[in-house]
Amino acid sequence: MQSSHQDPGFTVRLADPAAAAGDVSAAPAGSGRGAAPRGFRQRRRNRHGRGLRGELMLPTLPAYRTRSERFDDFVLDSAQRLHDIWGKPLDGVRFAVDEIPPGLEQLVADGAPAPMGAYSPATEEEGPVITLFRLVVEQACGSREELQDLVHDVVVERTAEMLGVPPESLDPVYRRRY
Question: Residues 140-155: pLDDT tens digits?
Answer without folding.
Answer: 988 888 898 999 999 9
